[in-house]
Amino acid sequence: ETGVTQTPRHLVMGMTNKKSLKCEQHLGHNAMYWYKQSAKKPLELMFVYSLEERVENNSVPSRFSPECPNSSHLFLHLHTLQPEDSALYLCASSQDRRISYNEQFFGPGTRLTVL
Amino acid sequence: AQRVTQPEKLLSVFKGAPVELKCNYSYSGSPELFWYVQYSRQRLQLLLRHISRESIKGFTADLNKGETSFHLKKPFAQEEDSAMYYCALPYSSASKIIFGSGTRLSIRP
User: Fold this and answer.
1) Residue B106: CB atoms within 10 Å
2) pLDDT tens column, A38-71
3) Can you give the pLDDT at residue A55?
């Protein structure tokens, strides 16, 4: 598959569960991103990875834990989430981390519901 | 503080009418702004960016530093333009970006 893929597309979890979101990009890009899109707030950048190194962490609670094992894969590990964490989680990638110059390519998102 | 404001949640115009989607920003430096679009059942994708000075699908956007605006315009709307439009501002370090809350554009036949 081409572009940016995300699995699962839908996830329902309890507050005590541990789950992981997966993102894979097939574009040869060096930077990857996690965003949160909730119903009542604008799209929020959560984490930025450049060449597998985390370069930005925008005050995200520790119950969200990212992992980037290589430049093609990005994970978001979830544990002890709250109902307000229910949202669409988008992954994106770009050629490099200079957002001002590079187009970001987005995945389809994972719709997360926390019960 | 950096901020992006899209004052209209919904904009509805007739096919063939001009379209203007408003975006205002707050940024102390020299901004580089983007417009992203999400069509129904499709992914969020880049429409155009200030740095490229380009016209995509008939849309243009001019940076007005005096009014701190980056409005998206199209002279004649088409039904396929119906979508959600987001204005975005990269800022501070190279890897930060904030998005506006988005405007849903609906084109009536």
Assistant:
1) 13
2) 988 899 999 999 888 888 777 899 999 999 999 9
3) 82
Chain B residues touching residue A97 (CB < 8 angstroms): 94-95
Look-up of token digits 């989607």: B21
Identify whether the C-beta of residue A22 lies closer than 8 Å to the C-beta of residue A107: no
Q: What are B24's strand-pairing partners?
A: B5, B69
**Residues in chain A, how many?**
115
Would you state the torsion angle of the CA atoms of residues B26, B103, B48, B80, taken in this order, to the nearest 10 degrees?
-170
Asked if B4 reaches chain A (Cβ–Cβ under 8 Å), the answer is yes
**How many other CB atoms sit within 10 Å of the CB of residue A64?**
19
Q: Is B95 on the interface with A (CB under 8 A)?
A: yes
Please check the confidence at residue B96 and state whether its pLDDT lies above 80.
yes
